[in-house]
Amino acid sequence: MARKKVTVVGAGHVGATTALAIVNRGLADVVLTDIIEGMPQGKALDMMEATPLIGHDAEITGSNNYVDTQGSDIVVITAGLARKPGMSRDDLLFKNAEIIGGVVGEVAKYSPDSIIIMVTNPLDAMAYLAYKKSGFPRQRVIGMAGVLDSARFRTFIAMELGVSVANTHAFVLGGHGDSMVPLPRYSTVAGVPLTDLMGEEQIDRLVQRTRQGGGEIVKLLGTGSAYFAPAWSVTQMVEAILMDRKEILPCAAWLEGEYGVQGAFVGVPVVLGAGGMEKVFEIELSDAERAAFEESVAEVKELIAKLDV
Asked: DSSP string covering 248-293, please?
């Protein structure tokens, strides 16, 4: 059986680590593309030389040309600028919108049946841009954020309680950023709700740390931002789609009435399978959770309203 093909746009830390994680799991052949000549080719060759040690056969191609991405099953978009000191969210929005608009045009041209997974920030706005520019149905444009935010929440819960991360499950909804909505009531340790295991103050501290998870790493690194956890988060989504696992994962999805939201990309639990985002998984929210969720949605809508698409 022919191997699946995944293109990763952007060969920086997140893109290259994502490519390696996909190969490491034996999921697909990978095309790593970037505008910088030689960089994707060099990283791809380095990864190819690791495949005998990884133990999976895969063709890893580095390219500066979208022709090589033709016929991809999934396209992961990590290209764009990271936020620099003194740069406002609006500056980042407009600069990355320019880059992503061009990328999506090429993706739609060469891989018209692909599923797009957006990673570039500001994530919810870039996913909206990809949805509008590609003309793809909503099932085939998804944003990666919730898997990462939930993984961070799960990590902090495991660290706090001194238990295995394998026993922790967490739900995080809403936009990707300070307004995200971690849901302690739906977060569990070996099936036991978090609210039965920790006091309110303890939970609030972990929720706050989750919201600022990316910023904490940026501060520690001094330059650059997180890439290991984001790359593995994307890879979990890629695996759910390519293996048609029907896995319920929190992703940024275009809502058409679910959760009372019309026309916005927002982080919600979805069923991921061969068709992409196959279903929005709706859960009951308390009044406080819904209020926080609606506040997050309003921030996302404010951001996408600035894009002239």
From this structure: EEEEEEEEESGGG-EEEEEEEEEEEETTEEEEE------HHHHHHH
